[in-house]
Amino acid sequence: MTTTAEPGVTYEGHTRLAELLALQTPLSSSEEEPFFLIAHQAHELWFKALLGLVDRTVSELRAGDPAAAAATLARGTAIVDLLVHHLDVLDTLPAAEFEVIRAAVGSASALQSRQYARLRHRAQDLAAAAGPGLAAALRDYDDAWERWRRRHLATARRLLGDQRGTAGTTGVPFLEARAPQRLFPDLGG
Ligand code: HEM
Question: Is the pLDDT of residue 2 over 80?
């Protein structure tokens, strides 16, 4: 970390805004596709931040500082709650437009999100490192993810109905089976 400002630093340069705003490449003719892409990309950016926080929580637990770990994980919970609102935005997508986008994306699906898979995996590291002092923070984090899964399921139900998912799963029944699966089942619901 440096205490002196880089010479010539600008907001657009620091945030690499031109590159960031050039990253939405629609595959369909739907003018709704940027919303769809931005909602997914925003999720992946926050997944990146979440992975960092979960790692930090584990390090703080291993260093014997459960209070710091609980505060760090609470920030993660706030991020997951924010993601629920990203889905609220996506839920305003008209179903007919979703069909146009869906036809263009082939078998691409967020089921293939490696960061999401890693987050689920890291939850096991978290559970292994945590003592009873972290139970409340773990439960809050788990609850937030359950809200996310139920919100995601509701959107899928509205937009997909009884069609299969783009990844080829049964779609809504697949997500219904996964929605109640807790990250930390040993804590109770
Ligand atoms: C248009 C709204 C959406 C619909 C209709 C939808 C639908 C689905 C469906 C049907 C699946 C099951 C896999 C498949 O067959 O494709 C799935 C999985 C998944 N979706 Fe979405 N999704 C939407 C938006 C999002 C967004 C914005 C994200 C954020 C990254 C996301 C993240 C995920 C994840 C992580 C999985 C895997 C879940 C698991 O492994 O249990 N979805 N989605």
Answer: no
Classify residue 92: in a domain, yes or no.
Answer: yes
Q: How many domains, in total, are found in the chain?
A: 1
For the stretch 82-87, contacts whose Cβ atoms lie closer than 8 Å and that sit 24 or more positions apart, written own/partner, are 82/46, 83/43, 83/46, 83/148, 84/144, 84/147, 84/148, 84/151, 86/39, 86/42, 86/43, 87/39, 87/148, 87/151, 87/152, 87/155
Dihedral sign, Cα of residue 146, residue 144, residue 166, residue 33: positive
Residue 187: pLDDT over 80: yes
For 56, the domain range is 30-184
160 Cα nearest atom in ligand 1: 5
The CB of 105 under 6 Å from ligand 1? The reply is: no
Q: Where are the beta strands (DSSP E) in 22-166?
A: none
Model confidence at 171: pLDDT above 60 = yes
User: How far is the centre of ligand 1, averaged over its atoms, from the C-alpha of 103 (Å)?
Assistant: 15
CATH number at residue 119: 1.20.58.480
113 lines ligand 1 (CB under 6 A): yes
Task: Examine residue 143 and state whether it is found in any structural domain, yes or no.
Answer: yes
